[in-house]
C-alpha cells in the first residue's frame, strides 16, 4: 500500500503523515473522474454541515445539493452515502465508533426528514466488520448500553463492536433503503485498514455526486445544521 519513497499509494488524507504532493496527486486523479469534491476535517464527532468546496470544515458529515459532490475518508470506519428526494438532497457521513454511539446516523436521517424527504437510499461502504473489530470488555459493554445490539463477538471469541451492522440496523429501522458493499477492510488488503496496518494506514474515499440538473426544492439557507 506504499509507493517508493514511503508515500501511501492511493491515499487521499492529509493527516496521516503522507507527502502532501502524494495526497494532491490522488485527489486530482479522483476528481478528474468525479468533478470537484468537498472534503472534511473529520474529528469522530456528529456534526453534519453543508458542503463547502472552498474550505474543509471540521465535521463528520456533509450535506449535498444538486451539482455538488462530497467525499468521506476512511480506513476501517464506515463511509455512509445517502441520497433522497430523487437526487434533491444527499449526504456523505463518516461513521466511526464515537459517531455511531453519538447518534450521527439518526442525525443524518433526521436531516432528510426535516427537508421533507422520506424516501432515502443509502450505501454502506467497505469497513471493518464486527468479527474483526476487537475492543475491550468495558468498551463493548459501554457500546451495548448506549446502542443495544452494537456489541459483537470476534472470530477469536473476544468482545467487539459491529459498526457497519449497527449502521444498517438503524437505517432499516428508520425506513431507509440500505445496500451494503459487504467488504471488511481488515480482511481485504485492497483497502487501507488502520487496524491491520497498525495505525500506519492511508485513507481511501467514499464519494457522492448529485446531478446538477435535479432541482432542489429547499434553499440551502433553510437546511437545519447538526
Automatic annotation (TrEMBL):
What catalytic activity is recorded? adenosine + H2O + H(+) = inosine + NH4(+); inosine + phosphate = alpha-D-ribose 1-phosphate + hypoxanthine; S-methyl-5'-thioadenosine + phosphate = 5-(methylsulfanyl)-alpha-D-ribose 1-phosphate + adenine; adenosine + phosphate = alpha-D-ribose 1-phosphate + adenine
Q: Which InterPro entries match?
A: Cu_polyphenol_OxRdtase, Cu_polyphenol_OxRdtase_sf, Cytotoxic_necrot_fac-like_cat
Keyword annotations for this protein, in alphabetical order, are: Copper, Hydrolase, Metal-binding, Transferase, Zinc
Q: Give a yes or no for keyword RNA-binding in this entry.
A: no
| Entries under Pfam families matching the protein | Cu-oxidase_4
A single GO molecular-function term is: S-methyl-5-thioadenosine phosphorylase activity
Q: Does the keyword Zinc apply?
A: yes
What SUPFAM superfamilies would the database entry show? CNF1/YfiH-like putative cysteine hydrolases (SSF64438)
Q: Which family does it belong to?
A: Belongs to the purine nucleoside phosphorylase YfiH/LACC1 family.
Outline what the protein does.
Purine nucleoside enzyme that catalyzes the phosphorolysis of adenosine and inosine nucleosides, yielding D-ribose 1-phosphate and the respective free bases, adenine and hypoxanthine. Also catalyzes the phosphorolysis of S-methyl-5'-thioadenosine into adenine and S-methyl-5-thio-alpha-D-ribose 1-phosphate. Also has adenosine deaminase activity.
What is the protein's name according to its record? Laccase domain-containing protein
Q: Which organism is it from?
A: Flaviflexus salsibiostraticola
